[in-house]
Amino acid sequence: MKSSPRVLVFFIHYKNLDDTLETLESAGKLDYPDFTITVLDNGSTPTSVAALKQSPVKFNLIASKKNLGFAGGFNFGVQSSLGDYDYIFFINNDVKLEPDCLRFLVETAEADEKVGLLSPRINYYFDQDRIWYNGGLVKMLQTKGVHQDLDKKESELAEAARPRETGFAAGCAVLIKKKVLEKIGWWSEDYFLYHEDVDFSLRAKKAGFLVLLEPRAKIYHKISRATEPGSSKYIYYHVRNGLVVAWKMGNNWQRIALIIFSVLRLLKQLPKFLIPGKARWARAIIKGTVDFYLGRRGEITSNF
Length: 304
Hints:
By secondary structure, this protein is α/β, with parallel strands linked by helices. The chain has helices at residues 17-28, 46-52, 69-81, 101-110, 178-184, 196-206, 232-249, 252-269, 279-293, and strands spanning 7-13, 35-42, 60-64, 87-91, 95-97, 115-124, 127-133, 136-139, 144-147, 164-165, 173-177, 210-221. The strands form 2 sheets. Strands 1, 2, 3, 4, 5, 6, 7, 10, 11 and 12 form a 10-stranded mixed beta sheet that branches. A two-stranded antiparallel sheet has the order 8-9.
């Protein structure tokens, strides 16, 4: 009888201890026969680490002395614990997994050797019939990845729950075949937060791998627990990183269009300095755009 592929279930802890503990509890209930859980503590406090160790769920804990960001944390953590695993199931630390989630993902991945990345259907944690991610579309000239069926009710979908190709796998929860990493390398640390998943998915596709949504596999996500939606840094990273991935993955004509788009977006920000409450957004968009052209990548440490 063929043994099941070995899976490393991996996620990063950074603040929000209660979320991490709930994710850990959820992962411990997966009904897949052969997996190991590893948690990277991404530069949090000794008190937080001590609390993690009290969890009744069996897992490996590794630590970084500083916050390495999303991609940096993945690279450090997985390189430190990869071993002879066949897959890495990378998840956020603010999700709840259905017990059969991993089993469905591996089953679909094993059915076709061309499959490289798979994401489950992801619904809102606090409104579990409402969809957050049901596949993604990459809109290169708008410098963003868009979630399909965002905010729709799952109970009202007409489509059958079967695997299908998608524009990008969601970094919130993605099963990665080890051979993808062996062929295309690790997650890009240019971004620090946001758009790493689009970059990685497009690189995998370019290398000949399929990127799929497996809607039978389901998780629930608490959404943006690391950075507040609408904050200056949230806007900054989305603007700068959207430009980074579009420039890296676009052709020459798309890059010309990207320059025109970014200049027009900069000009649109100027009147916002006269509108109460809009100046902060405008400042973040301007800084994100300027830093892109100046080649500034990774974590932003200055205030603006």
